[in-house]
Amino acid sequence: MELAIRIQIEQLPEGPFLATSDELPGLVAQGRTVAETLEIARDVARKLIEAHRERDGLPPLPTISDRRDYTIVIAA
Fold it and tell me: Of 23, 61, 17, 19, which Cα lies nearest the Cα of 41?
């Protein structure tokens, strides 16, 4: 089963990127690039989900087939 977790990435004033998730509390990852930050965030998410599964079962997160997120870019 694949889960779909929405994360937010922002660039910190010092330069690195920070990823967090409102859907998966405790997910915090930092990297030098967006790609590195995403990779670290995936690892952190796997560990958080595994720990949650051992305690309480699978967390209530949407599966890939349940989620349809799109981003549109508009020149202003």
Answer: 19
The CATH number of domain 8-66, selected from 3.30.2390, 3.40.50, 1.10.10, 3.10.620 = 3.30.2390
Task: Please state, in angstroms and rounded to a whole number, the distance separating the CA atoms of residues 58 and 49.
Answer: 7
Strands 17-20, 28-31: pairing kind: antiparallel
The mean pLDDT values, 10 residues at a time, for the chain of 76 residues are: 83 94 91 94 91 75 61 65
pTM score, whole prediction: 0.73
